[in-house]
Amino acid sequence: MAHKLDLDENQVRVLARILDDLKLERAQARVDDQRTISAFAEAMDGEAFDEAVADTAADRRVESAKRLKSAVVKALKDTHGMLDERQRSRLAYMLRSGVLTI
User: Fold this and answer.
1) pLDDT tens-digit readout, 12-49
2) What does the CA dihedral 36, 37, 43, 45 come to, rounded to 10 degrees?
């Protein structure tokens, strides 16, 4: 991506930080998802369905999705802020064409 956007050294450092932060949030979302699935299984495992456990797990999933949404928007905003007009146009093209996904 750095090569395709023709980033300078400073931009590469900033982008690396942005992507690292996003990577950490995505990893946390995967952990939250596993916990949610485990809690759903726990809710199903008893003689009676444990709606409270399932509801809490579903809330956890929603909150995790909100945190990930915020992290993606922040990453896009921070990336936009460090790119020049030409680089932003290239990045937008890469996103639209599927060359790059977020």
Assistant:
1) 999 999 999 999 999 999 999 999 999 999 999 999 99
2) -150
